[in-house]
Amino acid sequence: MLSTTRSIFSRSTRLMIPSTTSPATRSRHRPRKRPANAGSARTMASTATATARAAPPHLASTQQASASNTQPPSLVPLHPQTASIPPTSQARDETHFSAKRFADAPISAASKKGIKHEFMSDVQASTIDYALAGHDLLVQAKTGTGKTLAFLLPSVERLAKMTDLESRKISMLVLSPTRELALQIEEEAKSLLANHPFTSNHAIGGTNMQSFSRRLLETPPTILIATPGRLVDHLENTPNFSHLFKDLRVIVYDEADRLLDAGFRRELDKILKFMPDRKQVRRQALLFSATISKEIKEIAKESMMPNYKFISTLREDEVNTHEHVPQQSLIVPFPQHLPATLAFLLQDRVKNSGSTKAMVFLPTARAVSFFYEALSQLPRGTLPPVYEIHSRKSQPARVKAADAFKEAKQGVLISSDVTARGMDFPGVTLIIQAGLPANAEQYVHRLGRTARAGAGGRGIVILTENESFFLRDKAVREFGITPVAASPSAENPHMASLDSAQLAEAGEAIQTVLPLVSNETKAQTYRAFLGFYNGSLKGMKWTREELVRSANAYVTEALGWTGEQLPDIEKKTVGKMNLKGVPGLNIVVSPPRPRP
Ligand SMILES: Nc1ncnc2c1ncn2[C@@H]1O[C@H](COP(=O)(O)OP(=O)(O)OP(=O)(O)O)[C@@H](O)[C@H]1O
């Protein structure tokens, strides 16, 4: 079966990309001047030129480090002609870094020792004085521009100066919407705290609650990083847990707009009820995010003192994605989402001298499993290592996948939105979003997993015709997403292109692996499809009947379901989805619950 796949790839001319291109050689390949026929300012060529002009020394050295990480290629690409494109998706963008040095900042020697960067990023430079002065802050800055250090550093500095801190109490609470992000913040806190007498710990779902309660009560950390659900659990169910917060001086809402939206609101309200009255213990509130809508601004006010400051490092006319990240869209039917993803991954590998580090975002956890199972069945060497991460995996498996992908020089991480915000995976060159993103904000956060800390990257969103209403959203229209063309553009060779032959070729490869994906995964992906698109009927312009018809076509044509009957779906689930009476579902009555 797999031999078909091999033959598809071996039909192309075998290509050897010069794997030993040194960073210096590569930079010579980059255009030094903007060509007269170059398109918009978004072209990678112009970014590369700007980079060559303005790289501060700290960034130049990081650039060299990342460029030297490229591995020799091991694949035969779908269309080898694209290989002549000089790899520039690692071009850097310095617009988010300031000329302020940490060495000159009014901060302790202990903190200076713990910081590995020389220059402050914009958001760090523009917030540090206000934060050190104890103001409540609502801060908006682009993804990947160093917000974590922007809230950790001044908070730690303020705590270090407080002479009346109660020992054995938590002084600073950082709230994070996801477990992975909480652990990542803790890592960054640990390196900042290396020379301070402070400690940090976390309280996140998926860990043993009893042993964590014990540990936190026995040795309370100075800084606790928590996900809201688990913190509420502790506060409500662990005796004396709320006493740990009696001297809380700083509270941080990372990804504030997500924490304040309807999904977390109830938990946040509960958490705040357990915190000491701000009139008795003066507490600083720091709210950070890359996306802050008007409504969120209004809600955020409730969490801050009336004289709070709103700081945005976005210029007034600036759209909220990195200008230097080329973004493209491809409109194809559902069965072509996986083949198109494969084709783009292979193309990116060629564009990056055989080494791609890409993330593929999908709307549901089950769709993640499906893509993962299919792509990992491709013949060895077709793709770099493939990883999956989503909420249905155990916490140790999530940590393992996130850590492995962080470390990986090349790889493909298939993910649900659990890694969409805040996660810092170094060197990601391509973000693919296949299927409808939840909203414009989530699109921005997912895209923000590339082009971090001044590096370059690209984004592609793959949608069906019905999902393409997303591209017509007012906010999304401003992002400058351009359609993927059928053939490579001479004007901008760094943009992805895809013709029908390439898509068919990738489709053939996918057809060979679909039978290897388990029926259970396909059935679950089908049910998740029904659930997810049921929530977007209006945008999709589907009736409930059309939803079911589309899901039934999806399971056979896109997922390769070959069962005699469609996957079953429990009666109670059908009721919850409001699909009762809609023809075309294979409804089963839920098995009775075992009596206690
Ligand atoms: N001053 C700096 N100079 C260079 N790199 C920096 C600087 N500050 C932070 N970084 C690095 O930039 C990367 C992104 O930082 P961070 O994760 O804090 O971004 P963020 O703004 O919180 O992103 P997101 O919006 O996705 O949450 C990290 O690898 C971090 O180490």
From TrEMBL:
GO molecular function list: ATP binding; hydrolase activity; RNA binding; RNA helicase activity
Compositionally biased region (Basic residues): 26-35
Family: Belongs to the DEAD box helicase family.
Keywords of the record: ATP-binding, Helicase, Hydrolase, Nucleotide-binding, RNA-binding
Compositionally skewed regions (Polar residues) per UniProt: 60-73, 81-90
Lineage: Eukaryota, Fungi, Dikarya, Basidiomycota, Agaricomycotina
EC number, as in UniProt: 3.6.4.13
Pfam family, one: Helicase_C
Catalytic activity, reaction form: ATP + H2O = ADP + phosphate + H(+)
UniProt name for this protein: ATP-dependent RNA helicase
UniProt domain comment: The Q motif is unique to and characteristic of the DEAD box family of RNA helicases and controls ATP binding and hydrolysis.
Function: RNA helicase.
Enzyme class: hydrolase
Domain Helicase ATP-binding span(s) in chain numbering: 116-328
Chain spans, region Disordered: 1-93
Segments forming domain Helicase C-terminal: 369-454
Ranges of compositional bias, category Low complexity: 1-14, 38-55
UniProt KW DNA repair keyword: no
